Known about the structure:
The chain is mainly α. Helix content is 70%, strand content 3%. Helix 1 packs antiparallel against helix 2 (39-60) and helix 13 (297-305) packs antiparallel against helix 14. The longest helix is centred in the N-terminal third of the chain and has 32 residues, at 2-33. The mean pLDDT is 84.
Amino acid sequence: MTDRVGLGILAILVGIAAAAVLFVPFVAVSYRRHGRLSVARAVLWGSGLVYFWALWAYTLLPLPDPGAIVCVGTNGDLFAFVDDVRDALAAGGSFVTRPAVLQLLLNVLLFVPLGFFVRVLGGRGVVVAGLVGLAVSAFVETTQLTGVWGLYPCAYRVFDVDDLLTNTTGAVIGSVLGLLVPARLRGSERMPGADLPRPVTRRRRLLAMVCDLVGAWLTALAVGVVMQAALLALGAREEVEDGSASALVGDVVTIVVWLVVVLATGRTVGDLAVRLRFEGGPLPVALARVLRLVGGIGGYLVLSALPGAWGLAAAVFAVASLALVLTTDDRRGLPGLVSGQRLFDARVRELLENG
Length: 355
């Protein structure tokens, strides 16, 4: 039970990490395909990520110690589970608590979410869900049969042909259950009206700020990891252990990336994701764009990168930015105030440019 709980926690943590990496692209795609970000759709996709990792964790992990591996046999007899269920019935008592019955039910239930997500997230029906369930089950069973594709000298989990049937059945059941989800939340096709302008709400502005924050953090992290690897390859172990040089390079590169994006487009990564645009004002365009960055994520990144008490200044800056978004009537917040620009839905300009 402890191993199962640990695998569940691992799946949740990996799913959360994957969701963080995919968050900004997901928001951008949602605004282009559906015109907005739906909380329900975000929850569905997040649940799908957790399930994806849980599926592999529960079917392939934990990997055993190669020195303590115990080779197991296979079951190539289709419908062998029928005899097991019959024996469980003949034994009397609580039917569902019999190991053979529990194994059968769990094999079905494990793939129900797969069929559900194939319909709800992929927009595909029962046939595709069944084929996907069969393919995934075959891959899992073959991985077990081959000892994780040769990593182990023999199979440490039983290859069972009946699992292909029960897993596929679970995927089909999940696909049928997916019909309970409203049609507007199913599939990933482009929705009518996705390119029509919508009001710039406070929620949308806050979402843009979150996208900038998450994107900047991931960029700095990625650059820092690459820097650490480079220093390790050069034998600079003291610098690797200290980590400050890698962190500084990550911060600087991130600030430069955001500066280039804003100078080129007039918008931050978050603005681009949720289709917002700052325009107009009395200042020259280049200066206004720089001030837009400084009044937003750029100012926060610079303050955060500075040592010592500047961290407190970054926190104050963040609180002030949040307060101004919530209190300014047009939701332009500090970036709009310091640059003199107004905030618009970017689709207004796109419609004008496309006639």
